[in-house]
Design brief:
three-stranded antiparallel sheet; binds 2-amino-2-deoxy-6-O-phosphono-alpha-D-glucopyranose; about 35% helix; Rossmann fold; 8 helices; alpha/beta; about 260 residues; globular; seven-stranded parallel sheet
Length: about 260
């Protein structure tokens, strides 16, 4: 993992935007894995801006979101589909049919929906770049602690902690306790991963997944198996890391090597 520490969440969003922009400009038919939550919002705003200014086009891009609440309709403002439309898709030139979420109504077979989602991702050649946020309990997507590191897209029961954090978006009687999420193995198949974590509430899960052991109790720690992951942190999220100086020196060395290589 490449641990990159930025002075602010804006600088994190700027870097993530550049990476995605460079990738799409190189490969217009990029397959992007998308995340929801408050963390990627700044990045979505910057990507929208780039698109409006004509520096970036999503016309050939396909997207797959990590997760969706089970039984929550896409028209419902609390669904992740509605979030994606509101915060991103409605403001860019993406073809609506190329945007995918693992939506599942209560009268659909969740096993079919999950299998189809995996098949759809594989049919598009797999995910080129997956954006990830981090749950306060170390979850990625909705892979809660104890999720199998070999899991595929499936239904998951949310933990009480996650329900409490998400309760701000739901009245208690209608809060979904289930979600369909890409599995950890699905996520690890992405060719590149950008894990974004900002703010003091992420400092402890960041410490655990970066410097702790690989464990189902901290699903994000599975990223230690992935060979092309950049972990983008602001100062607050990086505040509990023990080896910060080392991560910073690695970045300096990388920049120097890149310069040297370009000079040859
Ligand atoms: C939810 C989503 C995750 C997201 C996490 C963090 O649980 N399922 O994909 O990464 O929240 O959200 P936030 O960025 O708001 O902290």
């Amino acid at each position: 993992m490449d641990i990159m520490i930025f002075r602010s969440s804006e600088a994190v969003a700027e870097y993530a935007t550049q990476v995605i922009k460079d990738l799409i400009n190189k490969k217009p038919a990029t397959v992007l894995g998308m995340a929801t939550g408050s963390t990627p919002l700044l990045m979505y705003r910057r990507l929208i801006e780039e698109c409006r200014r004509g520096f970036l086009s999503f016309r050939e891009v396909t997207t797959f979101n990590l997760d969706e609440y089970y039984g929550v309709n896409g028209e419902d403002a609390r669904s992740y589909r509605a979030y994606m439309q509101r915060e991103f898709f409605d403001h860019i030139d993406i073809v609506p049919e190329n945007t995918h979420l693992p939506a599942c109504s209560s009268d659909q077979d969740h096993l079919d929906v999950s299998r189809n989602y995996e098949a759809l991702i594989a049919g598009k050649g797999g995910i080129d770049l997956q954006v990830l946020g981090l749950g306060q309990n170390g979850h990625i997507g909705f892979n809660e602690p104890t999720s199998s590191l070999g899991s595929r897209t499936r239904i998951k029961t949310l933990t009480q902690g996650t329900l409490n954090i998400n309760s701000q978006y739901f009245s208690s009687e209608s809060q979904p306790e289930l979600a369909i999420t890409m599995g950890i193995a699905t996520i690890l198949e992405a060719r590149q991963i950008l894990m974004i974590a900002t703010g003091a509430k992420k400092a402890e899960p960041v410490r655990q997944f970066v410097e702790g052991p690989v464990s189902t109790m901290c699903p994000a720690s599975a990223l230690q198996f992935h060979n092309n992951t950049q972990v983008l942190l602001d100062e607050d999220a990086a505040s509990l890391l023990a080896n910060r100086e080392y991560y910073e020196s690695v970045q300096v060395q990388k920049r120097q090597l890149a310069e040297q290589f370009r000079g040859i």
